[in-house]
Write a structure and sequence with these properties.
The N terminus is likely disordered. The chain has three helices and 16 strands. The strands form four sheets. The protein has a four-stranded antiparallel β-sheet, with no helix packed on it. The two termini are 31 Å apart. By secondary structure, the protein is of the alpha+beta class. β12 and β13 form a beta hairpin. The chain folds into two domains: 114 residues, Jelly Rolls; 109 residues, Jelly Rolls (Sandwich).
Length: 281
Amino acid sequence: MKWFFLVRQYEVIVRSQPSLADLRKRTSLTKSIKLVVATLIAILTFTAGSANTRTLETRFALSADLRSEFSTRFPLLSAGRIVVEANWDQLSAAHSPASLRMILIQPNGKTAATKSGSSILRLEYQATEQDIQTVGESDTSRWMVKILNDADDNRKEVSGIVRITVPIGTRALEDTQFTLVGSGNAEEIPFIVPAPGKLQIDTTWEPDLSSRSSEVTLVVSLIHPGEAKTIARRQGVSPVRVEHQVTEEALDRGGRWIVRVQNDTQRKVRGRVTVTYSPSL
């Protein structure tokens, strides 16, 4: 609570008749308060900026052999910037620092980025929606970081830590339009959930122009075929929202989910279903 005492002391000086010493002290306190405020702002900015990322950390070791390499896999669930940072020490005394080569590899085996250098080695890549469109369909959707000891002719035995920071922002899994003529007519919209996280299903619709009614009631259901059950069911007028937290246990029974929209009225409607996904931290 240092900042609180600085502010209180500043108030006492301001309210009393200031002497030259007081003026000097007031100037010093003002600078201190500004420094504290700037520090608080920096901390808050850093916290906000890192709120939509997650850092994975693992240790690695490489021998001096040319064939020595290390690899680790990670899931990419949202578009955004990937940052890979490796920090290592060489295990034997040497006049020059050890250099390594770091490669970021996409699930299809294509090299996304590569960089060579001495510790600390940092590599960045901006992942797009296209990069992650197949995430969650199989285990091959996991990205890979590979570190090789082939950047120098004079190779050295090393040991260190690699940190991988990935985006975990909200993304759309489905955005589909539908038309229901009524009398029990329904449409099922399948989608894949890549990993545990929160689902938000928003369904909006409006009656056909030929309909006299301004409000039509629909039934919106969230179904998980892997568990052979309806997870949630909502009935009402537009809009209807369904939210559900998908667990690891549920995904063990399958990543395919379904939104079912049913029209039991006699009125034709046109609408849209959007499925938004937020990965669990």
